[in-house]
């Protein structure tokens, strides 16, 4: 029985991928084999030593201590692209909310009183305060052209906007998906000075923290709009508020409310809603549950943020899955132990990524505990599992 601890609500469509005759899934469970979560902050959590895998039903993994998990041989998965359409749609809404002053106008309308003829009079007198502008011909800068950024760039272009993108590590896959009409910026500074709107779709890491600060805000065009549907911390919010107050920035649309932002008249904050659609929640949950199941049952890895991809089809043998440091002579030592136990290797695959390596070995009969213990005792081995050995 595999035990799965959930730290957030995970869509049922995903949990249903884990058959209950073989999986126990609960928000409170001892000795879990794997953890499923969304935005729960794991950094201060004591992670049980039984955990072999963590599945983030979403994109960002800054809430997970990925480096510590790698050192402990724990694979971390996410669900790349599974919520990208949901975020794209909310960014498009953000562009329109800013350009047409929708939130402010709605507040005004909610505050109207009197009979309908008085309301109508107040509407006609008041609407001039909310005059907006149109998107075609305006320039949108997209920083980060991954799953979300590419969709946002293409959709904004389809609305008639001129779009400039910046991503120094764009993947070949994203480059293929990006409309050839999207222009390339040479740097964030190059992009910032040319745009009426700038939207960010990068992960929160040291190099992206405060990508927009007071200095860069000064280089932005007067009356431009910032959108942050990536993470709190990517924009220096204090600097953004100062720019809103001085009138340099027209609006700030942000998915991460704070005391500083939530009541500002030119800032619209939403409660981290980017991925909150039924479709995105299901896509993420299904993708990550399938990945966790494949890892627990077969040792295969797809869409990990810290381990190599590895897939070895099952051929009926007994499978040993080893996670080890990526150093010389690991395979030699492991196969020596198997030979000493008179086990014949039917199939084997080894993959590495940075400092970690994964080896899947199918052997002709179930290894005994002593063999597994000897492999676990090899210096550099982080974990050893025998998959399907008891049957
Ligand atoms: N608001 C929400 O609910 C919500 C939903 C999904 C994702 N997100 C956030 O959005 C981020 C992006 O998601 P995604 O699915 O597009 O991820 P992704 O990995 O597909 O794309 C990220 C892109 O950013 C690029 N990048 C990294 N550093 C960069 C830099 N310094 N300058 C420019 N580009 C850089 C990468 O090359 C990559 O192409 C996630 O990490 C997450 O934090 C938020
Ligand atoms: O990185 C993500 O996928 C988003 O921030 C979504 O977070 P959520 O799953 O908590 O809505």
| Biggest pleated sheet | 7 strands, parallel
User: Ligands bound here?
Assistant: nicotinamide-adenine-dinucleotide, 3-phosphoglyceric acid
Instruction: List how many beta strands DSSP finds.
Output: 16
Q: Tell me roughly what share of residues is in helical segments.
A: 25-40%
Q: Which fold name corresponds to the CATH topology of the largest domain? A: Rossmann fold
Question: Total number of helical segments?
Answer: 13
Mean pLDDT: 97
Strand/helix succession: EHEEEHEHHHEHEHEHEHEHEEHEHEEHE
Radius of gyration, CA atoms, in whole angstroms = 26 Å
What does this protein look like?
- The protein is an alpha/beta fold.
- It is 32% helix and 21% strand.
- A seven-stranded parallel sheet has the order 8-7-6-9-10-11-12. Strands 2-1-3-4-5 form a five-stranded parallel sheet. A four-stranded antiparallel sheet has the order 14-15-13-16, sandwiched between helices.
- Helix 3 packs across helix 6.
- The mean pLDDT is 97.
- The site of 3-phosphoglyceric acid has 10 residues, from loops.
- Nicotinamide-adenine-dinucleotide binds at residues 58-60, 80, 83-84, 87, 143-149, 166-170, 174, 201-204, 207-208, 229-231, 255, 272, 274-275.
- It comes from Sedimenticola thiotaurini.
- It catalyses: (2R)-3-phosphoglycerate + NAD(+) = 3-phosphooxypyruvate + NADH + H(+); (R)-2-hydroxyglutarate + NAD(+) = 2-oxoglutarate + NADH + H(+).
- It is an enzyme of class 1 (oxidoreductase).
- Pathway: Amino-acid biosynthesis; L-serine biosynthesis; L-serine from 3-phospho-D-glycerate: step 1/3.
């Amino acid at each position: 029985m595999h035990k799965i601890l959930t730290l957030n609500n995970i869509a049922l469509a995903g949990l249903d991928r884990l058959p209950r005759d073989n999986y126990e899934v609960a928000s409170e469970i001892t000795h879990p084999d794997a953890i499923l979560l969304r935005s729960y902050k794991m950094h201060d959590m004591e992670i049980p030593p039984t955990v072999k895998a963590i599945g983030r039903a979403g994109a960002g993994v800054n809430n997970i201590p990925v480096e510590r998990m790698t050192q402990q041989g724990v694979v971390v998965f996410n669900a790349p692209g599974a919520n990208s359409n949901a975020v794209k749609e909310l960014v498009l809404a953000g562009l329109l909310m800013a350009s047409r002053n929708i939130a402010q106008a709605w507040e005004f309308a909610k505050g109207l009183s009197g009979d309908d003829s008085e309301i109508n009079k107040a509407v006609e007198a008041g609407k001039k305060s909310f005059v907006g502008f149109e998107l075609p011909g305006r320039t949108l800068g997209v920083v980060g052209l991954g799953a979300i950024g590419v969709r946002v760039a293409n959709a904004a272009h389809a609305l008639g906007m001129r779009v400039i993108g910046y991503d120094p590590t764009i993947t070949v896959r994203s480059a293929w998906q990006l409309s050839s009409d999207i222009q390339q910026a040479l740097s964030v500074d190059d992009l910032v000075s040319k745009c009426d709107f700038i939207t960010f779709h990068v992960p929160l890491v040291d190099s992206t923290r405060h990508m927009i600060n007071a200095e860069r805000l000064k280089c932005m065009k007067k009356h431009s709009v910032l959108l942050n549907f990536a993470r709190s911390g990517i924009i220096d919010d204090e600097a953004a508020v100062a720019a809103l107050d001085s009138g340099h920035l027209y609006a700030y649309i942000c998915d991460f409310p704070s005391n500083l932002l939530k009541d500002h008249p030119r800032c619209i904050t939403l409660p981290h809603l980017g991925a909150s659609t039924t479709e995105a929640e299901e896509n993420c949950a299904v993708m990550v549950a399938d990945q966790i199941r494949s890892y627990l049952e077969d040792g295969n890895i797809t869409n990990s943020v810290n381990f190599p991809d590895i897939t070895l089809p099952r051929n009926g043998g007994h499978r040993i899955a080893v996670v080890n440091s990526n150093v010389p002579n690991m395979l030699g030592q492991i196969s020596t132990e198997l030979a000493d136990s008179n086990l014949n290797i039917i199939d084997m695959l080894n993959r590495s990524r940075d400092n970690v390596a994964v080896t899947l070995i199918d052997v002709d009969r179930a290894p005994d505990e002593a063999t597994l213990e000897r492999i676990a005792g090899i210096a550099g081995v982080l974990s050893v599992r025998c998959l399907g050995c008891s049957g």
